[in-house]
Design a protein that fits this description.
The protein contains eleven helices and nine strands. The strands form two sheets. A seven-stranded mixed β-sheet has the order 1-3-2-4-5-8-9, with helices on both faces. A two-stranded antiparallel ribbon has the order 6-7. The N terminus is likely disordered. The chain starts with 5 loop residues before the first helix and ends with a helix. The protein is globular, with a radius of gyration of 31 Å. 46% of the residues lie in helices and 15% in strands. By secondary structure, the chain is an alpha/beta fold. The protein has a single domain, classed as Alpha/Beta hydrolase fold, catalytic domain (Rossmann fold, 3-Layer(aba) Sandwich), CATH 3.40.50.1820. This is AB hydrolase-1 domain-containing protein. Keywords: Membrane, Transmembrane, Transmembrane helix.
Amino acid sequence: MKRVSSKMKISNCYHFVTNLILIAFFSIFICSCAKDDDQSPANPTPVTPVGISQEIKDLIYFKGNESAPTVLINAQAGPDIELGTDLVDNIFENFNTTDILTVNVHQAQTLNPTILQGNDITLAQAVSFNTESIEPLYQVIKYFKDQGRTVYVLGISFGAFITQELIAKKGIDSADKYLIITGRLDINDVVWQGLSEGRFGFFENGVTPIVDPEPGMDVIERNIGRLAAGLGMNRYTQLLNTVNDLSNLTYIYGATDQAVGSLTAEEVAFLESKNANILTGNGGHDTPFFGFFKQGLSEAFGIE
């Protein structure tokens, strides 16, 4: 039997104790991991749907999945004193909106119709009310953008002017893409000036403005006209000139639009200089909507 040195004995003892400690450590570690593994599948962390806050719901009418990754926001036409539902319903029912939430946003006069009732408002008041209308629109856009969603903005007729004002005041990057239908960048002065006085008019052949000599009989209609004047007075070829690129904007207009007039050569040239996508055809104020709406949604947003 060979003699084992004391040094070797001590070394063996040291390794024995060390091994015990390591075994104990790994036993605790493995046990702990096993408990975590047991708990994870049985009790997964619940995923909270994105949804829509009540504050935002109070500002909109909507259809579709509340957690959809894409949101199509309409700046309401008119002006009107009630929040519309027809356009949102139409888009929801006739287009592929599986992953799209479609929204219409309140404006100042739909939130509080009394501002247009009773007495004639001034042009300055109309401008102020239009400014108020931009805020809920921007609030809704920013809310969904902050959630990481893709946001598209649609503006038709009066909504076209609201959308242009949104871009001018809040920036082209407020939303991802825009579709404007039957608007004007620089509507004729005689038209908005007449509306500011409660006098209505139209464009003969989409070119020549003809304005009534006397104000309309209904105070609400006169005030609605002043809201239109409060935006129509703006020269958007100047206000939007600071925007370097409008390639995320599709603009549709009718060559014989009797309500707001056809875009002038100067307005078209401005949009072209900013790389906007322009669609046009013969027809009045409604024809571009019915004739080009499907194409516009497809080209602007990829909605079929």
